[in-house]
Amino acid sequence: MDVSNDYGKFVKAGIKHFPATSGKTIYAAGSYYTPNELLKGFSEVMGVETAFQKIDADTFKSFMTPKVAQELLENMLLLEEPGYFGGADLAESLSLLDEAPCSWKDFVQANKDCWL
């Protein structure tokens, strides 16, 4: 999701469909992406080769101060399992929108000058 351009679409949906949305969760995401899907989209738009290399927990933590290392590791592990939003189905939230949120590839394209 392109936060600066898409977040308002979800807020608008919550307001527009009130009171039906009252007490409900609106998942502000257009899709779930794996690391390999992100890199594939990036490569296609940017015309560069990419590769995903998963590292073990101790290596990940070695790049940070001990004070934050475990906390950040646990946050990253939550993205893996149970997954962002706990893997909840995004279809109901997306059906509330008047406009589709930006795809990953569209986001990369729109920000192409910022990447390299």
From TrEMBL:
InterPro entries, per database record: NAD(P)-bd_dom_sf (IPR036291), NmrA-like (IPR008030)
Domain NmrA-like stretches: 5-91
Top-level taxon of origin: Eukaryota
Name used for this protein in its record: NmrA-like domain-containing protein
